[in-house]
Amino acid sequence: ANEVYDVVIIGSGPGGLVAAEYLTRDPSVSVLVLEAGVSSLKATGGDNIPDYIRSEGWTVFDIPGEYSSVAFPSDNNGRYRIDWVTSPGPLYLGKVVGGSSSMNGMLYFHTADSYVDESKWPYDAATVNANYDAIETSFSSTNLPSTDGKWYLQEAYNLLRDGLRSQGGYREVDINAQRNAKSKSFGHPPFTIKNGLRDSPAKTFYGTASTRANFKLVSSALALRIVQSQGKATGVVYSFNGQLVTATLSGRGSVIVAAGAVSTPKVLIQSGIGPQSQLNLLASNANFPGITTNSTNWVVNNNVGNHLFDTIQVLTTFKHPTMKVFNHGSRPQAAIDQYVTQNHTGPWASPDPVLVGYEYSSGGNQFQITGFCHGFNFGSNDLTEFGVAVYLNNPRSRTKCEFKGDGTYHFNLDSNLYTNADDVAAMDQFSSKLQMYIEQAGSTFVQRRGKDGANHYGGTCIPSNDASDASRCADGTFKVLGTSNIFVGDASLMREGTVNPYGFTMQIGRQAGLNVHKFLSSSVPPPTCSAIEENTDYFGNDIGSSKRSTAAECCRDCAAHPSCKLYVWFEGTCWLKSVAGPKSSQPGRRAAVLQTTSTPPPPTCSAIEDSTDYTGTDIGAVPRNSADLCCADCLAKAGCTVFVWYQGWCYLKATTGTKVPNATGRRAGLIVTTKPPTTCSSSIENDVDYYGNDIGRTQRSTAESCCDDCKNFPGCKLFTFAWGTCWLKNVKGAAVAAPGARAGFVDSNAA
Description:
- Residues 260-274 form the Glucose-methanol-choline oxidoreductase N-terminal domain.
- By secondary structure, the protein is of the alpha+beta class.
- Helices cover 18% and strands 28% of the residues.
- The chain contains 14 helices and 40 strands.
């Protein structure tokens, strides 16, 4: 039986895991995270453990010194990298628990407050900074990664410091402390490293969430499509162990797509959400069942996958007689021995970046300088070489992610990603200026490689609160335009590039969690179930299950399933059932039946009418200090339909009589009653649809709720309910077997 979840998160990267941890703080919210890759860090059950540290059990993902070998393997092994992008390739994007945050260089930066305005981010700087503060309670960052408090591999740092400070006029700073004064600054890189080990979301946020009963992560689970109709998601189909599995959403449920800026558009398009041209192209391809030829179910959003950017980089090599190369990829034995025997100290406690600096031009270009303890003159045996990567963090170049007609997935087919003329000119000019700084300080230029990307992708689903924004793909809550419950939670949302995006993506995850939790709280009014029967089981007829900490929480899941009539809760699992089987006494089991007819809400009072009197018959009076307190007295008094408050007294009346306006000092209120729900002319039929003749639709959690909608819709005679939608019909079409669908009539002549 399929399990039911409130939230399905596609991707366990820094956005997805942070969102999952936040959401599961609420024990009533069940979360499933789908990860296409395998385990990574020790905390996730990773098993790639180097022999030199096998006794401690740390994997290559945990150990900072293994970064280069994991991220850029010499054998080009793609086991840990995404493999569904046909071109360009190979891509250095993670396909493991934690995503790229388990494989990156652990560089953790705060964005400047100005980035909020530059990128038209839908939240202000105070909110972004509050998110940073919140996530930083779960992990550590430091610019002193070795546990002995010493900096290692400082030769390149010192050489670059001389050039930047004496020739370029740069300031030496604490990078994150000076986030709002970046230009012409440099310092030691801040890393998410603690105790000489990677301190990333796969260890911290996953570690916390994994202890909760309402959290589940499935690895080696490739999300294939979101099950949706006209933007309303009801589940996610994924492949696992060669089988197709559907994770079903609860009635209030939602999906967060956090597969990364390159892969999130792929998931959306495969689900029938994307540019018109892409959906038309793939509609007849049998390998895309989430699109189909029925275009009425599509969500046309022409900005899905557009506006992709990547940080542009130029790798440069210099040399100096005092430089001592340290190549992590060669696994220097002395450094490894120190790390293992001296409490994770030394060069192996950090990756290869040793310096980070910034310079912003008057034309708005934001350059980053990253110094390395080795050069980029690949194949060289010169041990005096060191490298400098020059980044243009906010390039103008853009391209798109797209499928070809043969079903293969690509980006940068137009070759525009690194070729914008303004970007090229800016990079050439700044690289030459930086070379001058370094040469004038005594180093020798060796080589400059061509322009390529730094794998800092973003821009493929831009959020905005401005409905006129031509680039808008999602609203300000990160909900994809055209959908009602599908959100994005990764770097796809970044309109512009900035510093290494790892930190900003984590705060995106935090904001996505906040947004979706608010959505869940307001989505569907709670259904009603009978009083819970203690120590009771109803055998058989299981049609689904969900993980809940209490039996009462099962009611919503039963209401969300179109065929559920009752449930039995036992040891944290709600067993949803279509029929009440044999009843038995079973210790620890708790059962309840879904109430299929709504009890009308109790009467309430109208808004207070100022300077108003009603002349109706008085049936009582109660002293009260204010008019709003009269409502309860009128509701409690048999026959009371209206009250008038005047000079400290509530005058309760059986009839309204004549309404008198301009009655100075008097304040009145009426009792408001709600009509009982419309009932259908016959019992609701299960597992059947009456095909065609649709004249409208509404979103409801149960079939019984469709009755009123049909009754109030002109011309409606019957309806079919399926997965949260009431399909309203004016004519009874042919009966079609449809497992899970439920049909009912409000006009007995139509039956």
